[in-house]
TrEMBL record:
UniProt entry keywords in alphabetical sequence: Coiled coil, Membrane, Transmembrane, Transmembrane helix
Gene Ontology CC: plasma membrane
TM helices/strands, residue ranges: 26-48, 359-383
One term of GO molecular function: protein tyrosine kinase activity
Coiled coil location: 193-220
Organism whose genome encodes this protein: Pacificitalea manganoxidans
Superkingdom, taxonomy of origin: Bacteria
Name by which UniProt lists this protein: Capsular polysaccharide transport system permease protein
Amino acid sequence: MQSAPAVRLIEVPAPARAARLRWRHWSLVGSFAVLVLLPAALAAWYLWTRAADQYASTVGFTVRTEEASPAFAFLGGLGDLSGASSSDTDILYKYIQSQELVRQIDSQLGLRHRFAGAPDDPIFALSPAGGIEALTRYWSRMVRVDYDPTAGLIEVEARAFTPGDAQMIAQAIFAASNRMINRLSDIARADTTRHAQQDLDDATARLREAREAVTAFRNRTQVVDPGIDIQGQMGLLTSLQAQQAETLIEFDLLRGSTRAGDPRIAQAERKIAVINARIEEERRKIGAAADGQDSAGGYADLVGTYERLSVDREFSETAYLAARASFDTAVAEARRQSRYLAAYMSPTLPETPLYPRRVSILLILVALSVGIWSILALVAYSLRDRR
């Protein structure tokens, strides 16, 4: 007969006691309420009860450079205007955010009064006591500029507390940008034509001096054109030389056919002497004396001086024509390449307030509060575990 198996007794642990909230638990809950729930409640109360509605007006534009086909492209190499619109839009992008534009629009529209139009909203409204620096900082909050450098497009969003104010600010920004582009265009035209105008002025002055020198020469010598005058003198000299040859022939014939003492021989000798004296006089006038040496003050000197003055005048006339053509070309280039501001989106008149974005602001604030609270809680528990 088998005996009954032995019974093993198992000790059962006592049931766990109910958990109790300790001080660290209450401090964690309290800190969550203070750091997260309370700021969220205050922010929600302010956003939905005190924060003023803001309306946004949008305007979009770009800088265009219109170029006509040149009618004198064969001249070439005379320079072009800087027609790249990207550099102009870069300037406008900075100009819209500048203190100069803020001051200009403030003098036109009274930005301080319009941006301080919500006295019950000290956070989102402008304090009227600030200077131009404070106004410029607030301007960067209320005016957003989006710029696409690839396409050269600028889109501006202007906010205000009334729809009309937002549209007026957007219109003022567009008008000021248009004036800036006109000013840049005027500067480009002036740069294009300035050097050509200087060259034209210099060429005109040289031509005037050359013509005045020719006129003074004619007044001093009483000779309009020494070349034409010397042709007449040379014709007279040739005629005298022909008469001289005929007279010499007649003289030789008389001397061979008549006896000595014939009065015709003496008459022929006097005629030959007169012709020789006249030939010598005419040679002195044209600068060639009987001995073949130049005579000072003769026609040779007049012709040399006149030719030098004529060459200077012709060179000055050629330089003037070239400078005038370059100037006309530069002016035509400046006229046919015109910049202008093209708006692809006119300033809009808003109907619904888009700002402040209450839900987004509240969610961001809650997220930041939760993050700060979590970091502080982790730091506190880490210090507690180190003890």
